Amino acid sequence: ITKMRRLVLTAVGHQEAEHRFHKLLSCLSHPPSYTCVRASTHLMCSSSAEEVSVQILPHPRIADVLILPVEGPRPVKQLSSEVVVGAQCGSAVLRGAHVFAPGILGSPKYMKAGDLVSVFSDLEGRCTRGATSFQGKKVFVGNGVAEMDRSTIFCTDEPARGIGIRMVEPLYRSPSFDGVLPSLVFLQNLPSVVVGHVLGPRPGERILDMCAAPGGKTCHIAALMGDQGEVVALDRIRNKIDRIRQNAQMLHLQSVQAHCFNSTQAVSSDPAQETEGPPFPPESFDRVLLDAPCSGLGQRPNMGSTWSLKEICSYQPLQRKLFHAAVRLLKKGGVLVYSTCTVTLAENEEQVAWALDTFPCLSLQPQEPHIGAEGMPGAGLPPEQLRLLQRFSPELSWEQTETTAPLPCRADSDTIGFFIAKFLKN
């Protein structure tokens, strides 16, 4: 947090910086006030759907985005029976999920299926698995009904699977998409959808997504191309490649080619190499998306970060290795988009300044759509370059979020923390 604070408090004055930092911590602990859904515009079909009670609004500027209001925080009464879940599971509950059995850390000693329980998120990761009570730092996320006995969750040879607690009174009520039109709508944070549009893929192009899992941006790129061309998706973890392929199959996309490969090594030393998969000869791609591994400090809700300073600082060298590969793989005249879901200056604006200094062939380009704020001062970039960057900073409009302003008016600012830079290779 100290490192994060120093990076956020740049060039805006001490008093304003302190105020902004505390707003950032506050808004990161809450989910956005809406759910963002990307429509599969590449599928030309009609379907009938039952009437639903939830309000659905089109995004005013992005044609393939629908936004659905989230209700909360709601006045939910806490119960005496408490179930403790991990922080990641607790964050998912705040975004509308039920509690799956692997996320449960502790429960009442005699909990049976059908019991009504309150669910708490362990903020510091200190609850021992199988605990019957927990007095550590925790936060209430809602009430639910146990779907399993305690013995089924903790006392079996095989890890329990499936829903452990079905949420009936969540603190934040989000629309459920379980099994609803799986090929036609895709849950995706708004800035992640913006990335695909900024990249600007065109039918027939060959495009590389360097760190692609779980494949939301990959599939969006393929959809924007009308599924005409080739989208190469790389990720170094094999089971994540399976997830990319499953998403592409679910969305009926034929142009996605997923490979298990370390993108830092994706440039072939043999320019004459003629293989379908990686590594690839230099200048093989029309466009490259580098949605880089990062500290993830912009994710919402994030009620308790367990990152150490060493971990947060470890991402910058990896991001630069990936940048080197991306520039070499991009054709002259091609587009490179760099993005992260974090808020640190070191992983965002400082990386842009480094890239412009290291690669004279790169120049910053305007972004369309540009619905976030401009870049943050402090990395030595002039104002005209900061205006070309796109930083989603939800803390800047946190007071507005808590008012009754119409949802479409605040959808562009009440997002996760995110950063986008667009380059042209001259």
UniProtKB/TrEMBL annotation:
<feature type="domain" description="SAM-dependent MTase RsmB/NOP-type">
    <location>
        <begin position="110"/>
        <end position="426"/>
    </location>
</feature>
<comment type="similarity">
    <text>Belongs to the class I-like SAM-binding methyltransferase superfamily. RsmB/NOP family.</text>
</comment>
<dbReference type="InterPro" id="IPR015947">
    <property type="entry name" value="PUA-like_sf"/>
</dbReference>
<dbReference type="InterPro" id="IPR023267">
    <property type="entry name" value="RCMT"/>
</dbReference>
<dbReference type="InterPro" id="IPR001678">
    <property type="entry name" value="MeTrfase_RsmB-F_NOP2_dom"/>
</dbReference>
<feature type="binding site">
    <location>
        <position position="235"/>
    </location>
    <ligand>
        <name>S-adenosyl-L-methionine</name>
    </ligand>
</feature>
<feature type="binding site">
    <location>
        <begin position="211"/>
        <end position="217"/>
    </location>
    <ligand>
        <name>S-adenosyl-L-methionine</name>
    </ligand>
</feature>
<keyword id="KW-0694">RNA-binding</keyword>
<keyword id="KW-0489">Methyltransferase</keyword>
<dbReference type="InterPro" id="IPR029063">
    <property type="entry name" value="SAM-dependent_MTases_sf"/>
</dbReference>
<protein>
    <submittedName>
        <fullName>NOP2/Sun RNA methyltransferase 6</fullName>
    </submittedName>
</protein>
<dbReference type="GO" id="GO:0001510">
    <property type="term" value="P:RNA methylation"/>
</dbReference>
<dbReference type="InterPro" id="IPR036974">
    <property type="entry name" value="PUA_sf"/>
</dbReference>
<dbReference type="GO" id="GO:0003723">
    <property type="term" value="F:RNA binding"/>
</dbReference>
<dbReference type="InterPro" id="IPR049560">
    <property type="entry name" value="MeTrfase_RsmB-F_NOP2_cat"/>
</dbReference>
<feature type="active site" description="Nucleophile">
    <location>
        <position position="341"/>
    </location>
</feature>
<keyword id="KW-0949">S-adenosyl-L-methionine</keyword>
<feature type="binding site">
    <location>
        <position position="270"/>
    </location>
    <ligand>
        <name>S-adenosyl-L-methionine</name>
    </ligand>
</feature>
<dbReference type="GO" id="GO:0008173">
    <property type="term" value="F:RNA methyltransferase activity"/>
</dbReference>
<dbReference type="InterPro" id="IPR018314">
    <property type="entry name" value="RsmB/NOL1/NOP2-like_CS"/>
</dbReference>
<dbReference type="Pfam" id="PF01189">
    <property type="entry name" value="Methyltr_RsmB-F"/>
</dbReference>
<keyword id="KW-0808">Transferase</keyword>
<feature type="binding site">
    <location>
        <position position="291"/>
    </location>
    <ligand>
        <name>S-adenosyl-L-methionine</name>
    </ligand>
</feature>
